[in-house]
Design a protein that fits this description.
- It is a single chain.
- This protein has 274 residues and is of the alpha/beta class.
- It has three domains: 91 residues, Periplasmic binding protein-like II (D-Maltodextrin-Binding Protein, domain 2, 3-Layer(aba) Sandwich); 78 residues, D-Maltodextrin-Binding Protein, domain 2 (3-Layer(aba) Sandwich); 84 residues, Alpha-Beta Plaits.
- 29% of the residues lie in helices and 35% in strands.
- The chain contains nine helices and 16 strands.
- The strands form three sheets. Strands 1, 2, 3, 4, 5, 11 and 16 form a seven-stranded mixed β-sheet that branches. A five-stranded mixed β-sheet has the order 8-7-9-6-10.
- α8 runs antiparallel to α9.
- The radius of gyration is 20 Å and the shape is elongated.
């Protein structure tokens, strides 16, 4: 199976993809829209995307892209994110004055960077990509924040490990397949949906009430603006299911109250890794 990811080999997305499908061939892309495009065209069989981080929140772009593509979530996982300051061979922690990484990774290591005011941070498109650049530049005064796997892959050294502000740092990843090829998930206990409601008093409350009546447990709700329609919103929800048939009942009930309902996936709730 060929799986598309956003980022370079050694990235957290690459790690998640390898854990979700151990024998897969991982195909990296620079930007998320290219990942979705590759899956839509059939260049790859699946895609692995980060959807939410326990500290930084949701990846809004991926919600928007899921809405506009005919894909389904077939698996999820929660990956422990451990950040490290990485340098080239021979670099020393005290000599680092520039640090590169993805903006989210930099934000998750604010305390470490504040404790080292000499280090000036610079945003980069990918954590592992920042290590790749580091090795290419061969600059002993530059560092990167990324995973241990990235340091190993590019032959760099870890100068400081576990530098994230909070150890309870997890990213939730989805494995996506084209809807027509997605397999039926036995024992599914989680449902992800997108829906919109009419702009009138009580419409959102009524939609959520039908989920409560069925007995599904709402674990997440996220709103995103409708492009081209100011002040109109799409709502994304995750629900825990006690019975797989609850998914069918929830979808049918929502369709009676909503102007649009899109199923994003029915799958097994992910477990923690790393």
């Amino acid at each position: 199976m060929k799986i598309a990811i956003q980022g370079e080999p050694g990235s957290f997305s690459s790690d998640a993809a390898a854990r979700l499908v151990p024998d897969a061939r991982i195909v990296p892309y620079a930007i998320s829209s290219d990942v979705f495009g590759a899956l839509a065209r059939g260049d790859v069989d699946a895609a692995v995307i980060p959807i939410e981080n326990s500290l930084a929140g949701s990846v809004s772009e991926h919600f928007d892209l899921m809405l506009t593509h005919d894909f389904l979530i077939v698996r999820e996982m929660l990956l422990r994110i451990k950040h490290n300051l990485i340098g080239i061979s021979g670099a020393a922690l005290d000599h680092i004055d520039r640090v590169f990484s993805h903006p989210v990774a930099l934000a998750q290591c604010r305390r470490f960077l504040a404790e080292h005011p000499k280090m000036e941070s610079y945003a980069f498109y990918d954590t592992a990509g920042s290590v790749k650049q580091l090795v290419e530049l061969r600059d002993r005064h530059a560092g990167a924040i990324a995973s241990e796997a990235a340091a190993r892959y590019y032959g760099a050294e870890i100068l400081a490990s576990g530098i994230e502000d909070n150890s309870e740092n997890f990213t939730r990843f989805f494995l996506l397949r084209r809807a027509r090829e997605a397999e039926h998930i036995q024992g599914a206990n989680k449902l992800s949906l997108a829906f919109s409601v009419e702009n009138r008093s009580g419409s959102l409350v009524a939609a959520l009430a039908v989920l409560a009546e069925i007995g599904v447990n709402l674990t997440k709700i996220e709103s995103r603006p409708v492009h081209g329609k100011p002040w109109e919103y799409i709502f994304y929800v995750d629900c825990q299911l006690t019975d797989p048939e609850d998914a069918t009942r929830a979808i049918a009930a929502l369709k009676r109250h909503c102007s649009m309902v899109k199923v994003l996936g029915t799958y097994q709730e992910g477990t923690r890794h790393g």
